[in-house]
C-alpha cells in the first residue's frame, strides 16, 4: 500500500506545558488534515469484519497515525505520560487531564501563579505589570 508522505504545512510549537490551549487547537487541525480527528471525537467505528484487507489496513494506519502525530508534537519530558498507550484518544485524554486549564491540577498551578504575582511600583509601571499578567494568562 502506498500512503502519502508525511509533510504538513502546519508548523506550531510542541506542547510544553504552558501552551496547551493553543497546542490543542493546532493539533486538532493537523489531526483533521491527516484524517485522524474522528478517532479523538469517537466518530470512527471499528472496521467491520467484512471489510477488505485494504480497508482494514487503512483504518489501522489512520489509527496509528493519530497517536504518532500527537506523540511527535509534545516535548520529550512529557512522553512518559503517554508512553504506556498507543491509542490516540487515550493519549489525547491523558494530556487533557494534565494540561487543560480547567483540570484540578492545572487550577492549582494557576492559583499558585496568581498568588505569586506582585506589583512593585519601584521597578515597574502598572502597564508593565498588567502586560506581564496578561502574558501569563495567555500562556495558560
TrEMBL record:
Source taxonomy: Eukaryota, Metazoa, Ecdysozoa, Arthropoda, Chelicerata
- What name appears for this protein in its UniProt entry? Uncharacterized protein
Amino acid at each position: 500500500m502506498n500512503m502519502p508522505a508525511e509533510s504538513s504545512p502546519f508548523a506550531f510549537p510542541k506542547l510544553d506545558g504552558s501552551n496547551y490551549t493553543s497546542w490543542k487547537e493546532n493539533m486538532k487541525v493537523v489531526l483533521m488534515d491527516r484524517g485522524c480527528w474522528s478517532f479523538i471525537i469517537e466518530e470512527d467505528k471499528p472496521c467491520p469484519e467484512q471489510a477488505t484487507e485494504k480497508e482494514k489496513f487503512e483504518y489501522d494506519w489512520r489509527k496509528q497515525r493519530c497517536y504518532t502525530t500527537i506523540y511527535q508534537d509534545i516535548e520529550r519530558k512529557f512522553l512518559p505520560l503517554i508512553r504506556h498507550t498507543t491509542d490516540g484518544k487515550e493519549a489525547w485524554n491523558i494530556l487533557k487531564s494534565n494540561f487543560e486549564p480547567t483540570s484540578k491540577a492545572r487550577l492549582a498551578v494557576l492559583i499558585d501563579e496568581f498568588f505569586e504575582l506582585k506589583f512593585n511600583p519601584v521597578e515597574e509601571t502598572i502597564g508593565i505589570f498588567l502586560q506581564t499578567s496578561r502574558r501569563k494568562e495567555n500562556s495558560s
